[in-house]
């Protein structure tokens, strides 16, 4: 097999795996694929979703009080965000390939809104504050519960969306 220097740039691009977030222009196949993160429209979609998600997180964090040293608001926000992300990604997966409007929706909802809504950096800060503030047991409990319950919430979101999909398929089959 020839080394990279012996391949033309088009041959080299064709031999590399293509990330699903890279759109290849079928009209000019020799042109380098443009990654989504370099396209201003996609960056704008993520930024808008992130701004809205961050606003929603701030509203909830002001509305839900802490329970002692346990930051209940961030705990609830991260769990509901993980659950919603599980639903969103399963629904989008069932709708078809990650392209066009489905890609834009994934970037807006998943990366943007839910990325701004959830806050695992605040989870880390809350854990550290509880531990350094003399509430080590609460800090450790908060961290462990957040990670374990967050994974369970994401799985539950996937399961709920998959069950909904199966129900819709069964209803369609019953109508025939």
Written account of the structure:
The chain is mainly α and 176 residues long. It has one domain. Helix content is 71%, strand content 2%. It contains six helices and two strands; from the N terminus they run αββααααα. The protein has a two-stranded antiparallel sheet. The chain starts with 8 loop residues before the first helix and ends with a helix. The model has no long low-confidence stretch (mean pLDDT 87). Fluoride-specific ion channel. Important for reducing fluoride concentration in the cell, thus reducing its toxicity. Belongs to the fluoride channel Fluc/FEX (TC 1.A.43) family. InterPro entries: FluC.
In short:
The protein has 6 helices and 2 strands, in the order αββααααα. It has 176 residues and is an all-alpha fold.
- Helix residue percentage: over 70%
Helices and strands, in order, run as: HEEHHHHH
Largest sheet: 2 strands, antiparallel
What class would the helix/strand composition place it in? Answer: mainly alpha
What overall form do the CA principal axes indicate? Answer: globular
Counting H and I runs of at least 4 residues, what is the number of helices? Answer: 6
Catalogue the unreliable spans: none
Number of strands: 2
In order across it, which strands form the biggest sheet?
1-2
Mean pLDDT comes to: 87
- State Rg: 21 Å
Strand content: under 5%
N- and C-termini, Cα separation: 55 Å
Please give the domain count. Answer: 1
Binding site for Na(+): 115, 118
Main location: membrane
Function: Fluoride-specific ion channel. Important for reducing fluoride concentration in the cell, thus reducing its toxicity.
Keywords: Cell membrane, Ion channel, Ion transport, Membrane, Metal-binding, Sodium, Transmembrane, Transmembrane helix, Transport
């Amino acid at each position: 097999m020839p080394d990279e220097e012996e391949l033309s740039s088009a041959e080299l691009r064709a031999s590399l795996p293509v990330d699903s977030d890279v759109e290849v222009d079928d009209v000019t196949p020799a042109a380098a694929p443009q990654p989504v993160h370099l396209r201003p429209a996609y960056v704008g979609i993520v930024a808008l979703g992130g701004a809205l998600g961050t606003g929603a997180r701030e509203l909830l964090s002001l509305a839900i009080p802490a329970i002692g040293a346990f930051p209940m608001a961030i705990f609830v926000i991260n769990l509901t965000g993980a659950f919603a992300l599980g639903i969103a990604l399963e629904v989008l997966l069932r709708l078809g390939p990650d392209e066009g409007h489905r890609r834009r929706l994934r970037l807006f909802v998943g990366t943007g809104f839910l990325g701004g809504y959830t806050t695992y950096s605040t989870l880390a800060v809350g854990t550290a504050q509880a531990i350094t503030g003399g509430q080590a047991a609460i800090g450790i409990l908060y961290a462990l519960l957040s990670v374990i319950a967050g994974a369970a919430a994401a799985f539950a979101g996937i399961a709920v969306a998959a069950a909904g999909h199966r129900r819709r398929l069964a209803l369609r089959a019953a109508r025939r």
